[in-house]
Design a protein that fits this description.
Layout (H helix, E strand, L loop, with lengths): L28 H14 L4 E4 L4 E7 L7 E7 L7 E5 L2 E10 L4 E3 L5 H12 L3 E8 L4 E6 H10 L4 E3 H7 L1 E3 L10 H11 L1
Length: about 190
């Protein structure tokens, strides 16, 4: 093709031979949940927040008031779970984790005190669960605490197989707004509890 003023087109672009998916590129589970929770707050549907990590600051550098830098801090107590809040008059509490495994979720990613915390929430009539994303598969599941406890009581394995999630958890489909509509599943869990 001849371009104006004698400029010749050069084709230095390599042809793409396979379809590339950019779905979820650069997004993490935590970012997706935070965006979803912000959307829920904006439409006045639920008030669920990421819990801050409990730390005690022991040393701060104050070069100026607006440039204070934490130099030393430590965790005061083990944190419980990632998120909590209120939805339709019910207390919601959950932990969110990602795994690169295609076959299972390693239980060492959840601490015993977190499992006990989720169990206590359930015992006190709150709604608690895990949200687990298998990043390589691009699948996100909501596993109710009851199903988590059933697995822990009946298995000695150190991981939960993907097949258990497929049979006992709820697949959360990605959407535009909210990004991860986990409250659809919470609605179902509330119906089952009644």
């Amino acid at each position: 093709m001849n371009y104006p003023k004698g400029i010749k087109k050069t084709n230095n672009i390599n042809p793409v031979t396979k379809e590339t998916s950019y779905k979820n590129r650069g997004m993490t589970l935590e970012a997706d949940i935070n965006i979803s929770n912000e959307y829920y707050r904006e439409i006045d549907k639920a008030y669920i927040y990421k819990k801050p990590t409990p730390i005690k600051i022991t040393k701060v550098d104050y070069p100026s008031r607006d440039k204070a830098t934490i130099k030393e801090a430590f965790f005061t107590v083990p944190s419980t779970t990632d998120y909590n809040g209120i939805y339709k008059g019910h207390y919601i509490d959950f932990e969110a984790k990602e795994t690169k495994s295609k076959t299972s979720f390693t239980l060492s990613n959840i601490h015993p005190h977190q499992i006990k915390h989720l169990e206590n929430i359930e015992r006190h009539k709150g709604i608690s669960f895990l949200i687990i994303r298998f990043t390589v598969l691009n699948e996100t599941y909501l596993l109710p605490t009851k199903q988590l406890m059933n697995y822990l009581e009946t298995s000695s394995k150190k991981s939960i197989p993907l097949s258990y999630f497929k049979e006992n958890a709820y697949l959360i489909k990605d959407s535009y707004n909210p990004r991860i509509d986990y409250l659809k599943i919470v609605d179902h869990l509330m119906e089952v509890k009644q």
